[in-house]
Specification:
CATH superfamily of the largest domain: Jelly Rolls
Largest sheet: 5 strands, antiparallel
Number of domains: 2
Helix content: under 10%
Structural class: mainly beta
Protein name: Cupin type-2 domain-containing protein
Organism: Ruegeria pomeroyi (strain ATCC 700808 / DSM 15171 / DSS-3) (Silicibacter pomeroyi)
CATH topology of the largest domain: Jelly Rolls
Oligomer: single chain
InterPro entries: Cupin_2, RmlC-like_jellyroll, RmlC_Cupin_sf
Distance between the termini: 43 Å
């Protein structure tokens, strides 16, 4: 049975919206935004994260908002990304419009292919810093693959690309 509950917690000047309690940030991104309704903003960020990542096994989004000066400090994150056993990699070429992207494999293995660089096998403990804008794709992964992806900025565009 799927969990359909979202927990709203208010403590120490923070509003936290999470799928599970206790909330856990295995990976997170932070930014400061102009003042707005904190609960509405938390729900919008949560909804965007959920739409994009709901198919990932074990995905449990968390959004935390704290007043900071005239704005709001937003921390959005989730548990570690896990492969869905039996589900193949999408294999679609794409690129991201961002300044920083690092992938750290915590369990299993994954094969990425980068434009002009070929395929790279990453095993548990491997880390790769992907250059901004590089065309890449996930080729395949183990059923037990887990990884952490750290990006900046938190909001960025992903573009579908043709194979190089």
């Amino acid at each position: 049975m799927a969990c359909r509950t979202w927990h709203i917690t208010r403590a120490d000047g923070k509003l936290q919206l999470s799928r599970r309690l206790p909330a856990s940030f295995d990976v997170a991104a932070e930014t400061v935004l102009p003042a707005a309704d904190p609960l509405r903003l938390a729900h919008q960020i949560r909804q965007d994260m959920w739409r994009k990542l709901q198919s990932l096994c074990g995905f449990s989004p968390v959004v935390e908002i704290t007043a900071e000066g005239q704005g709001l400090r937003v921390r959005a994150g989730a548990h570690v990304i896990r492969a869905v056993p039996g589900m193949e990699s999408p294999g679609a070429w794409h690129s991201h419009d961002l300044d920083f992207q690092m992938v750290y494999v915590t369990k299993g293995w994954v094969v990425f292919e980068y434009e002009g660089q070929g395929e790279h096998l990453l095993r548990a403990g491997s880390c790769v810093l992907q250059p901004p804008g590089i065309k890449h794709r996930e080729c395949r992964h183990s059923d037990d693959m887990e990884l952490i992806e750290i990006i900046s900025p938190a909001a960025f565009e992903t573009r579908d690309e043709t194979a190089p």
